[in-house]
Amino acid sequence: MASEEKKEREPNFMQAHRGLNSWLYTLDHKRLGLLYLGTTMLFFLVGGIAAITLRTELLTPEGDLVSATTYNKLFTVHGAVMVFLVIIPSVPGALGNFLLPLMLGAKDVAFPRLNLLSYYIYSLGALFFIVTLFTGGLDTGWTFYTPYSTTTGTAVVTATAGAFILGFSSILTGLNFMVTIHKMRAPGMTWNRMPLFVWAIYATAVIQVLATPVLAITLLLLIVERTLGIGIFDPAMGGDPVLFQHFFWFYSHPAVYIMILPGFGIISELIAVHSRKHIFGYKAIALSSVAIAIISFLVWGHHMFVSGQSELAGIVFSFLTFAVAVPTAIKVFSWVATLYKGSIEFNTPMLYGLMFLFTFTIGGLTGVFLGTLSVDVHLHDTYFVVAHFHYVMMGGTIIAFIGGLHHWWPKMTGKMYDEGKAKWGALLVFIGFNMTFFNQFVMGQQGMPRRYYEYVPQYTQQHVLSTVGSYILTAGLFWTLIYLLQSLKDGKQASDNPWGGASLEWQTQSPPIEHNFHGQPVVDTDPYNFPEIDRSGAMDEH
Amino acid sequence: MILNLLMMMAPEAAGKAAEGAGKAAEAAGNAAASAAPGMPSAEAIQGLHKFPVEAPHSWATLPQASTFAEGVDTLYLFIVALSVFFFVLVMGAMFWFMHKYRRLSPDQKTSSITHNGKIEFLWSAIPAVLLVVIFIWGEIDFVKQTAPPSDAIDIRVTGQKWSWTVEYPDYPGKILTSNNVEPRVTMIVPKGRPIRLTMTSRDVIHSFYIPAFRVKRDVVPGRYTNMWFEPTQVGEFNLFCAEYCGDQHSRMTGIVKVVEPELFEDILADYAKLEPNEGESMADFGGRIYSIRGCNACHSTDGSAKVGPSWKGLWGKTESLADGSSITVDGADGENYLKESILDPNAKVVSGFAPQMPPYAGQLSDQHIEALIAYIKTLK
């Protein structure tokens, strides 16, 4: 690194071709990553606007800002868009696409055309969601519970068809990534020398490929029931509504890990690189991802402790849920231990990494309450659950995603953002997020049910606090968007390796050239071997 | 943040404050019922209720009003204590490392530790053991919640969009309902007696949730679900629907009233009584039925369309029906039509409305229906 001369810079992947078609027909994983980034952020805005409207409505106990029907459609839009169009595709679609081949030392993913197809299938699914919005909306909640979804007059078929199509994008991306990881690692990159981000994407891909078909079948059955009147879930036609919940959560619980595992991967990179320390317990972190992927298939019934499923089933699911908590705890402990005797730099990516440890630990611990049978009976379907999954999905995945975006922004765009402004943004996000969601645990414990348009006045104070927090959070996110866009225009040129990272994506120029690397990179150590690298770097200088 | 944590750690004090407030409310209630102590006043029965305040300040814990509540809360607090301990431990280590190992110079040496089998085993095994303890504790309490004693009082609960109907098979004819316009006493139970609910739904999934009792169970169409509890405190407690069920989900609420066992039958009879008062006209009595039995949930009296057609101007009007025919609501035909529409609502459906009203056959007597028709006639 130190010996590298100032070379003539080659055109980067964005300069290699010009024009709209060079983007629309691109097979370059980096361009597809950016397309995913743009699209998911657009939908993040849509889901966010819905959320802010909901929070504003909840400022007062009475329903006054919007009608009850609109409120129900808004929380459905918020949930469905955030889950299906933002969180699931964001990290794998945007960061995964961009980084996976770079981290593996490959020129592209295994099937670049399939990759482009995935993006278009995703866009088609998203289009169905947009059509849903403009044809009367959907009021079932993102969970589509029957028989409400069988009987409501809103656009259930369009929306479920959208989710059905999105599933294929998810499956194809997962397949593509799995093959890429198996077949396209650089010479010398054994499984134990892969960056942990790659391990996390691998575990995610396995779940995507195995679980998503179940969702597809479930949604198809729902569409069949609605359009052809064949009774599957609706008891009025001889169906079983609880069967739908089993099918739905058989996918949607593993899907929770589709959403969080990539976040875990990002955090492993951030913590190690910015403390210049070998990640603590590489194997434990890598294998716990795989353990989580496997156990995640066996815990879906913990969403149904009060649904009328058998008590014995509830007990088994509760036990397995506790089993999934152990690998998750191992990860958190390992990240914190990585900081020990490190050289910690408090730049923005690291601040998000540390923020993740704070919020995700709360998210994880509160999961224990909900996995506990007798306590869950009280807390189920209250704001406690709302707070818990926002601490995991937003405090986990989204915080990790924003941290990852800052970490790889120089690599992706070739520009540095304003570090001072970014730190203010991180502070606003941290304060806003915790203010919005922490007291929702208390509210839930006091019995406030979720999905309530109006509420008993005793909860007013809590709701006001939440809403004010959500405004601060919004301000922080917009602030972040603004300085990131600003950096594209007048940000400082980023160096190839601004953080001193050791994985392969930092060995190419920023932004990378079209084919990623000059020649085939070779790997002879694991990517967290900073003390070793520092020593050999020091020797080079002599 | 820190304040929240502290408050969560000190719920005992908060609970006592809540108890105090509850007692004050009870005293006020007693003062209102001056005629017979403990017996509800006429106003109370007429439905002038408010939702009880169970969490008088932001950090209060709920009243523990059933035999399950204390157990659930104890386990809850045990998990809170463990969580706080581990959170402080992990965050403490994190902040300590952040301070101690902050980058002071660019070439700061870092340790080459990569793992430590002993410590990794410990931090896997210790949480695993604690989690098993929590699992077993929760499982024992949960099993208790699923096994009602054989001497329990049976109550049948029916959920429908958007009200609860509570029937007492041991006390024939006693029916209580909630409605989505005003808070009403929806269930009356004696203190210190086990109660078993057998529940079902007429349309979509609902969930019967009494936070003060720490009990909740989904109410599912096409099958029966059971739930039981034993109230330990006299008073009024919130009842919520906890499973999203459409537009008025947040209004599918009611009040559970716990009374002294010796007063139970009398109070139930008072609340479930649906007879004309002395000197009350049939139309006025009909007006009371309209509100007590929750007709007002779906039918307005001011001409606005709700889930069902408005009653304003209904008498004398010509309604067009979904099957293309029409009917003039007047004379004997009009009375027959109204009666049929109450007992078997889907026989003739007004066009533009979904056939979703539940049949009231067996729930309203001929006298009730006559009163309702008399009331409708007054709504010009």
Question: Features of this protein?
Answer:
heterodimer, A: 542 residues, mainly alpha, Cytochrome C Oxidase, Chain A, two-stranded antiparallel ribbon, 2 strands, globular, disordered C terminus, B: 380 residues, alpha+beta, Immunoglobulin-like, Cytochrome Bc1 Complex, Chain D, domain 2, 3 domains, five-stranded mixed beta sheet, 9 helices, 17% strand, disordered N terminus
Overview of the structural elements:
- The complex is a heterodimer of chains A (542) and B (380).
- Chain A is an all-alpha fold and 542 residues long.
- Chain A has 16 helices and two strands.
- In chain A, α3 packs across α8, α6 runs antiparallel to α7 and α11 packs antiparallel against α13.
- Chain A is globular.
- The model of chain A is unreliable at 1-5 and 538-542 (pLDDT under 50).
- Chain B contains nine helices and twelve strands.
- In chain B, a hairpin with a 4-residue loop joins β6 and β7 (215-219).
- Chains A and B meet through α3, α9, α10, α11 and α12 of A and α1, α4, α5, β7 and β9 of B.
**CATH top-level class of chain A:** Mainly Alpha
CATH architecture of the largest domain in chain B: Sandwich
Number of domains of chain A: 1
The outline of chain A comes out as globular
The biggest sheet of chain A, with number of strands, parallel, antiparallel or mixed sense and barrel status, is: 2 strands, antiparallel
Distance between the termini of chain B: 58 Å
Structural class of chain A: mainly alpha
Order of helices and strands of chain A: HHHHHHHHHHHHHEHHEH
Percentage of residues in helical conformation of chain A: 55-70%
- Quickly give the CATH architecture of chain A: Up-down Bundle
Helix content of chain B: 25-40%
Q: What does the main sheet of chain B amount to?
A: 5 strands, mixed
Spatial sequence of strands, sheet with the most strands of chain B: 3-2-1-5-8
Report the uncertain regions of chain B: 1-37
Oligomeric state of the chains in view = heterodimer
CATH superfamily of chain A: Cytochrome c oxidase-like, subunit I domain
Fraction in beta strands of chain B: 15-25%
Secondary-structure-derived class of chain B: alpha+beta
Compute the CA-based radius of gyration of chain B: 28 Å
